[in-house]
Amino acid sequence: METRTNTSDGTSVVAGLPNEPFRLRSYQTEMVEASLKENIIVAMDTGSGKTHIALARTEAALETSDPSQIVWFLAPTKALCHQQYDVFCSNLPGFGIQFLSGEDDVDRWTDQSIWNDVLENVRIVISTHAVLLDALSHGFVKLNRLSLLIFDEAHHCTKDHPANQIMQKFYLPCKFSSVSDSIPRILGLSASPVINAKADGLETIEKNLDATTKTPKLHRSELIRFVHKPQLSTVTYCALDSKEFAKPDSFQRLCKIIGSLDIMQDPCVRQLVEQMEAGDPQARRRLEKTLVRLDTYCQKQLNSTAAKIADILNALGPWSADWFLRKCTLKFEKLIESSDPLLTPYSDTEKQYLHAILKKAVAGSTPVPSPIGRYCTPKVQALIDALVAQSSTNFRGIIFAEQRATVAVLGQLLSEHPRTRDVFRIGTFVGTSTSSKRKMNLADLAEPRLQQQVLEDFREGDRNLIIATSVLEEGIDISSCHLVIDFDPPKNLKAFVQRRGRARKEASKYIILTPSVLSVGTASNPWESLEEKMKEDYMNDLRNVKAAEEMETIEENSDLALRIATTSALVDLHNASQHLHHFCAVLQSNSSIDMRPQFSFKNDEYDMIRAHVTLPASVDASVRSSSSSKCWLTERNAKRDACLQAYKALYAAGLINDNLLPLGQEPEGTPQFNIPDKRPSLILVKPMVNPWSWVLSQRASTSENTEGAESLKESRNSDVNVTTYYRTLVCLSSADEQSVKLIVITQFPLPQIPEVILYWNVTKRYVISTKLLKSALYQEKEIEFFKATTFRLLHSIFGSRMPAERHDFVALFVPVEDGSSPKATQLRHWLQMTEKDSPTVDALTFLSQHQGQEAGLIQIHGNSRLFILRDIMTENNDTELHLTVSRFPKRRDFLHPENPRDQINEAYSSLLKLEAKDCIVHRLPASVSIFALFIPSLLNRYEVHMLAERLRTTILAPVSFDPTDLSIIVRAITASSTNEPDYQRLEFLGDCILKLCTSINLMASHLMWPEGYLTAEKGRTTSNGFLARATMQLGLERFIITKGFTGSKWKPPYEADVTSSQVEGSSKKVERSSKLIADVMESLIGASYVVGGLPNALSCLRTLLPTEDWKPLEESNQVLFDAVPKEPLPRHLAVVDSITGYTFTKKHLMLEALTHPSFVGPPEIASSSYQRLEFLGDAVLDYIISNHVFAHNPELSHETMHSIRSAMVNAAFLAFMSFENTIPEEQANITIDPITNARRPEEPSIVQRALWQYLRHSSPQTPQLQKAALIRHKASRDAVLSALREDCKYPWYLFARTEAEKFFSDIVESMLGAIYIDSHGDILACEGFIRKMGIMDCLERVLRDSVDCLHPKERLGHMAVSDTVVYKRVDTGDQGRYYCQVEVGGREIGGVVGGLKRLNAETEAAWWAVKILEEGEDTDMEGGVAVVESEASESEFEDAQEAMDEDQEMEET
């Protein structure tokens, strides 16, 4: 890179940056804006970007003119028209574009209906001037149908040229008539507005085009940096007379044959003789004339060919002349053999006659051995010397020659010459003949045909040297060159300017070959005077650059600055530019988009300079532009001043903080609770609260309202102390057993819990149902009975862990028969009957004394094992009693089913036989004992619901949770480590709700914030660290259930223990993952949404995140709607309504949703870029997909939901669907019968219009990316559609092979964001759009058919189990791609896979590995090491990678 000027502020003005992104430079924007105000002719150097000006001006015309009007682009040649057609199709794919030329038989379109059909749905026409002139002349096209006329190579608009006739015959008369307001605007483009040296040449062109020539003020910085004038030099050679060369043998023979020809044997003469003999009266006169003039067609062909060879001999040497003659002969012979249509005008006798002469000249002649030494001219030697001297690795060059034959011969000569054949990859390019109906000349046969592919190869670098005629001087877009050589000098100043403009690489050279002064025949060479003009023009350019460099070194002092008093931060003229560039850089992470500020300069009447700066399209329009506060001597200081004023505006708008840095770049301190934002961490928190501690603190007193409570006061004195107790009836039932009832008595109301299913074994279930009873007043004496009853119940099962002296139970259990309140007398009798002298009785005694009563549990003397009596049997004549029993369970957890792999547990399903004499029977009925066995499970359900109730009535009190919603709160606070239904499904839903509400709230609260700010702030608000800190501030972490119920070592909860644990827990700490704590907050948000929709979820957000300013959604939606500008209103996007299936109220939203960050346009069509809308649309899409997935019945697991959402919102999938969602548009096909001139019936062509075709951008790379992506889409379309419709697995691997740029998916999401704002937050309208896109159909198919959407990398990780999966990078030498090899447990699986990015290669490598492992074949792909090309951009799979990262975090937690 060449540095031209080192400025005093430490920056360098450079001559160009390699691979820098393109956008309209300030002088190009200046020209577009000028064209919107008046008719202009843009006069700029070749390669300075006139085509980009034409495209930008065309886009402006299309957006502001009536949809029925046309932009007509005119170019002087068919080749140039073809090139510009390709350019317009690539850059404006959403508009109907028609290319008209003589090959379309336009001259036969003699009916208005044909023209109407051709121009139907067409907004841009590209043609030569003659086509439009003819259409206007016959009235098929009216001038008022045109909104803009673009004249490429406008210097042709003189004299009788069709361009001038269009203006003189139609435009100017219309302008001076009463309908002057209906004429189109004029835009001329030219690198050489002055064709000749006449003083009034420029004025003539301006008058003819009714336009003013505009040459943009080339600002000094751009003059130094962008415009690369090539070094001009001349190379002289000694021009020799042709007599000094020996004619090649073949040419000598040809000349000799021509000189000795008998004219009477000429086919034309013989034909005239035959006609004369046949009596034709005119034949004699024609024969006499022919014999005198010797001008038969064959004679002319031979003479012209000989003359052409003589010219080649003189210019190039003997080898060239010999090769040319042999090439013509060979080509003519092949044309005869193939009956080529080119020879149709020749008669058979003429063909044979000419062929015989050529064959005779070549056959037997001695070929010239090689094009070296004396076999080529000094001029050729000079050319070769110049080429070799300038050759380099990245060489690109053009050689201009005047004659087409010279181009052909030079191409062959350089391809064979030993000094050039291995250095240059040569192509030739010539113009087309003006008449396609004349006979083919022999001398033309060796000339190359027009080769469009040669230009493509040159642009792609497959060729590095082109030899061309003047056709390549103007218009045709080719790559910038290092070297341009004029083999033949330019004829005029225009040709000089055009050719010089082709050499616009850094350090390029422009060489003109000229004969030396002493050369023969050069004394009066007219080239000398023209050469002086050219040198003067070149030196003027150098002087301008030098003057610019000197001016920019002038020092100007100023104390302008921005100082912040609170922080003492300072920005002044010396660092304002760096600060402003830094601000722009942080707005966008995509390096392919140029986010630098753009500058323009204006000079006042005193030549003082004022600078204007424009920031990227992602910056709000109100602060996007600023100007320097005053005028300056230098552009450098004017630019600094503009930067400072822009920075002041950004600070005033709140986009810069008090440290004068972009928001979000404040110095980070130690985070609260030492919890980082972006990574999970283990932190110390207080343990979960004991649910009994809270309810004990809520005990009722006798002063509480006891209205309606059952009272025992009737049997008591009025001064007896009684206490209010709350009662709950609990019923235990099973399919084949009689239900058992207990009443739970507590000093506090228990929450209502759902039915509790208890898993006795694999097949048998018990169900506990509860019913709240009225509260009751009990005396202390009665409470003692209840405690004794409770002890008796629990001690029968859990006696080993129950001290006899402790009766301070937090809950009392009393058996009842009918559900009525227990009476003291009944309880006293119950206690006596179940105990008496011992809690057990001899089995024989029990059977003899208590027949008909329910037996208690059975126990063998001396053994603690318990059994359940199933049957009594007698044996040996009824003398022996045997008991059929089943074992009583030892396990205590009945809330969770047994592992199905254990089958039916024999411990309490199989039957055993015991001798009655060896057994004792518990007095407590077995059914009651079974109920007692279930009390730990029952209390666990009460405990978690009491915890949820406490959370509901304290922290979550502002949220609309009813007592009936406790179950969903329980699930929201239950971690996956509990083996219970956990929070993960609700967290999945809450995560998208949080992101949606955050996105909407941020958008509405910060209307001027760019997307980068919004994304950073959303990331902070939704980060695990932020949520975890908020959770701890609320104390919410103490409500998280992390331990599952096992019943192991269970003992009854005692009041004293609860009280002491509450004191101990105030200082004790436990470790928890910050992600776990954050996830519970998101799950509560999801629970609030399930209960009450988005309003309730927003209420939950206000409660859990009170530091954020949460506005009502309706208010935010209205703010966003009202903020949409009213202007400009796009007039060209009506088709977008059809594509989206939505009609916009505020049309500007469509424009913004389709504006790429690179777009630079005039104020008339300006808008912000789509990034803010894409930010919102991303959240809306996540919400819609997540909501549908969550609501699916049956419920899906968290992992399944996550994989489905990743599949439906990943960039590759959205890009694919954007290609698929199209609407058809008809374009007429016109065919005219050559005989009748009647129109033949033809089916119209169908053009598919898609959303991405209307993307507004200013990047020349974007059309190529769109075209390439469309080609890849068509190649993979059938396979992807088949997989989406039929496969049982989502085709991640197919998407890994595509390369759709992120902007394809971005505009889907930006359009969704636009619809959300325009519809005031109507989710149904948004869902209608994504259904129109086909996304909902795919989602419904995935859900309906249970399509497995797990990413291949995740699947491989699951299949590897404990083995380590490694994606090892492989160096193949291809620096442009990423290659990897999968290893599972140290063993290579599959082969080497390549992709454009790492994730794409790893995705496909994982897919291959999974395929191999599933099929049980450890073989290389396709029988060896396979390199499978995968060409997707990394952003396509960022959602899938995020899913895998989250799953990894869950595993770590």
TrEMBL record:
Domain (Dicer dsRNA-binding fold) ranges: 576-670
One Gene Ontology term, aspect cellular component: cytoplasm
Keywords: Antiviral defense, Antiviral protein, ATP-binding, Helicase, Hydrolase, Magnesium, Manganese, Metal-binding, Nucleotide-binding, Repeat, RNA-binding
UniProt domain RNase III: residue ranges: 944-1093, 1133-1320
InterPro entries per the UniProt record, alphabetical: DEAD/DEAH_box_helicase_dom, Dicer_dimer_sf, Dicer_dimerisation, Helicase_ATP-bd, Helicase_C-like, P-loop_NTPase, RNase_III_dom, RNase_III_sf
One biological process term in Gene Ontology: defense response to virus
Domain Helicase ATP-binding as annotated: residue spans: 31-211
A Pfam match: DEAD
Gene Ontology terms, MF aspect: ATP binding; helicase activity; metal ion binding; ribonuclease III activity; RNA binding
Annotated region (Disordered), positions in chain: 1429-1453
Domain Helicase C-terminal span(s) in chain numbering: 379-559
Record's compositionally biased regions (Acidic residues): 1431-1453
Cofactor: Mg(2+); Mn(2+)
Domain of life: Eukaryota
Function, in words: Dicer-like endonuclease involved in cleaving double-stranded RNA in the RNA interference (RNAi) pathway. Produces 21 to 25 bp dsRNAs (siRNAs) which target the selective destruction of homologous RNAs leading to sequence-specific suppression of gene expression, called post-transcriptional gene silencing (PTGS). Part of a broad host defense response against viral infection and transposons.
Family designation: Belongs to the helicase family. Dicer subfamily.
PANTHER family: DICER-RELATED, ENDORIBONUCLEASE DICER
Protein name per its UniProtKB record: P-loop containing nucleoside triphosphate hydrolase protein
Species of provenance: Lophium mytilinum
